[in-house]
Amino acid sequence: MKVIDHIAKAEDKTQFTFEILPPLKGQNIQSIYSAIDPLMEFNPPFIDVTYHREEYVYKELSNGLLEKHIIRKRPGTVGICAALQHKYNVDAIPHILCGGFTKEDTENFLIDLDFLGIDNVVALRGDAVKSEVYFKPTKDGHAYASELVGQITDLNKGIYLDEEIQNTSKTNFCIGVSGYPEKHMEAPSLDSDLHFLKKKIEAGADYVVTQMFFDNSKFFEFQAKCKDAGINAPIIPGLKPFATLKQLNALPHRFHVDLPEELIKAVIKCKDNNQVRQVGIEWCISQSKELKNAGVPFLHYYSMGKSDNIRSIAEAIF
Ligand code: FAD
After folding, report:
1. Nearest CA to 128 among 100, 102, 149, 150?
2. Total domains in the fold of the chain
3. What is the best residue among 80, 122, 144, 256 to mutate for testing ligand 1's pocket, by most ligand atoms within 8 Å of CB?
4. Residue of 94, 115, 152, 244 with fewest CB within 10 Å of its CB?
5. What is the CATH classification number for the domain harbouring 183?
6. How far is the CA of 36 from the centre of ligand 1 (A)?
7. pTM
8. Which tens digits make up the pLDDT trace of 210-269?
């Protein structure tokens, strides 16, 4: 079932959903099931599965020169989605990127999803590869998520890349896109970011999932600004429970989000990461309660492959 149909069916009741990462290459699907099993009693209508593009690594040769290798550490997004739909009878939502995909690759990826009965996708640009500073579009690929959304919308109308294909089958994807309450790191301003978010909706996106945030007022301001900008699609808040001392620096650096002073002080006081994890759970419970009271359609948790803290939060909220 499509995400927008889940929203309609829930009749204003906030539902529990979460995102998982494919395991590192070399592990099997059991590691995914072990993370998901403790969360299924909270009846998630869907589970998101992230997509991880290739990385470049450089190996030093005996003559001192560097040799470039292309590796993918977390392949398997589509296979995992198919496995989840089959095992748990839940909608699995693969993320799909511009980076690393030609338009032809995108079309073939979408055809695979359609054949597997997967009718939801989250369409993203993706980040720059780790060894580069700026995102570079793949040759014959898309530069921005709005263009990717446009291609998916075209396929939903039966428009394939090869114009000569006759009597085409139409896909039926519900399309999610990203939104950034504290603006995307490359955007010159929140208004400019919202301008381009609107382009994604105009290109056919059905709903928005936000980047993590730790201060609900940022989300509520974002919701209001979206409304003012004429963005009326449902907005799903993404929440990540704070979990380690290292994240005090890592999260603002990696995701360009602010941490409230009260949270920072509580984390600094902790003696070890077990205590930090507990602080993170309590903070996220309090965020979740307020958002639920505000009537958001889903609370969407970033699990990062670990579910014990998400389970504690779900027990308190759902
Ligand atoms: P876009 O919407 O294309 O925006 C990128 C930047 O360009 C923004 O600053 C925007 O304002 C600007 N912009 C947009 N259109 C234009 C235009 N026409 N002209 C000029 N500027 C423009 N990454 C992964 O690799 N895998 C994942 O599975 C994944 N899942 C994610 C899920 C969520 C909910 C979120 C919030 C992020 C996720 N990401 C993932 C990270 C995401 O790929 C990065 O944040 C990336 O840098 C931007 O992707 P986007 O789709 O938001 O880009």
Report:
1. 100
2. 1
3. 144
4. 115
5. 3.20.20.220
6. 26
7. 0.97
8. 999 999 999 999 999 999 999 999 999 999 999 999 999 999 999 999 999 999 999 999
